[in-house]
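PROTOCOL LOG
Step 1. Enter all chains and additional molecules of the complex.
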Amino acid sequence: MGQLQNFSKGFIRENPVFVLLLGLCPALGVTTSAFNGLGMGLATTFVLVSSNIVVSLIKNYIPSKVRIPSFIVVIASFVTIVDLVMEAYMPALFDSLGLFIPLIVVNCLVMGRAEAFASKNNTFSAIVDGLGMGLGFAFALTLLGGLREILGAGEFFGLSLFAGDGMLVFVLAPGAFIGLGYLVALNNIVKKKLD
Amino acid sequence: MEYIVIIIGAVFVNNIVLAQFLGICPYLGVSAKVSTSVGMSGAVMFVMTLATIVTFLIYNYILIPFDITYLQTISYILVVASLVQMVEIILKKVSPALYQALGIFLPLIVTNCAILGVTILAVREDYGFHLLEAVVFAIGNALGFALTIVLFAGIREHLDLMDVPKGMRGAPAALVVAGILALAFMGFANLV
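Step 2. Run joint prediction.
Step 3. Record the structure below.
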């Protein structure tokens, strides 16, 4: 598989949220606005790329029996870095993402890529894979966040699009599920057209 | 009375799945049949309660006295992962019947963010829980998880027999159903 294909698969064909249905907790929990979705997506991308690099570098030194706990420690360290850096430099985003930052540790997407890809491939491929998957995740979260923000509050990235209140339900919990449901259906259709 | 409020709050008002978006993976993954969802709920309740007790003690008696609370994420995930492993080994020896029932669900629980989420929430300063309250909080959240996943599995069993539009079959329809369930649970807001 070429590197370009390796990179681009995360957006539509193997989109972590829309197709693989991984990492749905943050995808639903933080996407009340496009900005929050993008912030979460980029934070996860950082963790994903960094842990992919480290895992692909140390893969030959770790006995296969203890590989999962070792991967978890690697991932948890990078999550702690993101947690502390975001608290220091982006306190507003930190507050709105809240609990979901430490929970990047249990995002199946990060663990899944470490186990399924980084532990079997060289460092460069692992970086490309992490970037592609991470940005695909950020793309999905921004899309869902944007959809909910436009329908729910009439804004996009904080810019007011139309006057008056939106449909509040899209900012609240039910809108997350329903919005994601329709985006998954849409992605299914797009994927079928591409094939 | 206090404990009842904590349980009602956790089960209905701030439902862990439908209001806090934790544990969505098992919620969608193992909710195809009512029987498997009951098994998963049992395993979650077991591990969630145990993990909350252990992490609560670690946080208050190790991390805070030594001023290393930034190690919370790393230490918690290790505790949850090793606890699950330990529970699996002990159950296999002590109660093969229970192991048979919960067995396949236990490894899945390590990546269940509901467990890690509840253990982190239980030591939040704004709640100010003591140990017993934290345990009740964990049980309440596990009950909330059980209630929603069993309800959802019941609906999905019927959904399989329905004529759903082609593009919406499978995950999309399930997500929309979850959204409608969440809408129903919003009716409990401001109950406590």
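Step 4. Note key features.
Chain B is about 70% helix and 0% strand.
Residues 20-188 of chain B form one domain.
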